[in-house]
Structure formats: C-alpha cells, structure tokens
Design goal:
Number of helices of chain B: 0
Number of strands of chain A: 11
Distance between the termini of chain B: 37 Å
Mean pLDDT of chain A: 93
Oligomer: heterodimer
Helix content of chain B: under 10%
Mean pLDDT of chain B: 92
Radius of gyration of chain B: 14 Å
Largest interface: A-B, 24 and 22 residues
Shape of chain B: globular
Strand content of chain A: over 45%
Shape of chain A: globular
Structural class of chain B: mainly beta
Order of helices and strands of chain A: EEEEEEEEEEE
Radius of gyration of chain A: 13 Å
C-alpha cells in the first residue's frame, strides 16, 4: 500500500495563478484532511471531509476550495494564489480503528511569488 | 491560550542522554492523545499513542495525566537518529475526528 500520496511535491506560482493540489489514499479511510504548516505556526487545518460527499471548513479556509472526488481522492484548489499561501501543504486520512489517528502524505511545498 | 502547548526548544542533548518533553492541553473532554515525530522537510508520522495507564515502546515512554491535563514523552539513551521535532497531538473527540496539534518540540542529539 502506498498510504497517502500527494502531487506535486513542489510548485512555484505567481500571484494570481491558480492550481490544484491532489491527494489520494489507498487505505479505504472515510475521512480526509488538508493542512498547511508554516514556521512557528504548527499544523493548521484548512478543510476536511468526514466522509465521501461531505466537506467542511477548518481553521484557515479562506482562499481555498476542496473537492472530495470519491472515497480515495481529496483535492485542494487555490483559485488566485497569494504570497501568504506560501507554505507546506499536507493531506491526511483517518479511519477509526486500532490507532485511531491520522496518516499523512509527504507534503507539497508551494511558493507564491 | 493555545489548545495544545509545547516548549519549542530546541533541546540539545548528547548521545546517550535521557530527555523528557511535556505538553499541556486545554480541552478536558479530550479522549485520545498521541506523539508524532516530524523529520526536517518530511511529513508527521505517528510515534506512539498515549494511554491513561502510560505506555512504553523501546526507549520511548509516554504518560498521560488527565487531572493536570498534560502529556509527557521520555526518551532514554538518545540516538543521533532521534533528532527531529516531536508533535503533541490531541483528539478532542469531535465529530470530524479533527486533531489538534501542538507547535512541536525540536530535539537535537549531538555526538
């Protein structure tokens, strides 16, 4: 199993450009999450999807949209990138069970110029 | 007040030392607790869950004090490979199973 995968690994955008970050999991988990991590700020939740067909805002949703395409895939879209969105983005998935916690993808490093 | 607070460090220790990290959480209704490890420029990975009775995994011991709302991680016989940032993570048992992360404690083990 690949676990949680993310593409791309790195991306540089100019202010105002748009892009979609892709995330997929092969663990048959119901819940998926998007976080951003900035120096000194820790991980902050952008959006989450408790199950296929549902999405909800997290702590810092402004400037982002998400799509839960199916049970496996959860994408994050930046419609008009801003320098404040320069960050590392992590996708995670969760299923209640023995460890009862989230598993993370390798991250996408995004720079907005 | 942050929901999960940790000393950011860095903790600089020599190989073989014992080091302990503490973390406090504000939501007394929290049900699940974890320590994650994050290497530089990598994703967080689950190190261990923290149980009410305390638990040990090799050189690592985690403890929970619900009355004082703090969690600890003890690392014995530190190795160079233990150098990383350790994240204290709490599941407040909300409907979306959203985790609350501390800012992390950085550990640097020196030869």
């Amino acid at each position: 199993n690949a676990g949680v995968t993310q593409t791309p690994k790195f991306q540089v955008l100019k202010t105002g450009q748009s892009m979609t970050l892709q995330c997929a999991q092969d663990m048959n988990h119901n819940s998926m999450y998007w976080y951003r991590q900035d120096p000194g700020m820790g991980l902050r939740l952008i959006y989450y999807s408790a199950s296929e067909g549902t999405t909800d805002k997290g702590e810092v949703p402004n400037g982002y949209n998400v799509s839960r395409l199916n049970k496996r895939e959860f994408s994050l879209r930046l419609e008009s990138a801003a320098p404040s969105q320069t960050s590392v983005y992590f996708c995670a998935s969760y299923q209640a069970g023995s460890t009862d916690t989230q598993y993370f993808g390798p991250g996408t490093r995004l720079t907005v110029l | 007040r942050k929901e999960v607070e940790q000393d950011p460090g860095p903790f600089n220790v020599p190989e073989g030392a014992t080091v302990a990290f503490n973390c406090t959480y504000s939501n007394s209704a929290s049900q699940s607790f974890f320590w994650y490890r994050q290497d530089c420029r990598k994703e967080p990975k689950l190190l261990m869950s923290v149980y009410s009775s305390g638990n040990e995994d090799g050189r690592f011991t985690a403890q929970l004090n619900r009355a004082s709302q703090y969690i600890s991680l003890l690392i014995r016989d530190s190795k160079l490979s233990d150098s990383a940032t350790y994240l204290c993570v709490v599941n407040p048992n909300n409907a979306g199973n959203m985790l609350t992360f501390g800012g992390g404690t950085r550990l640097m083990v020196k030869p």
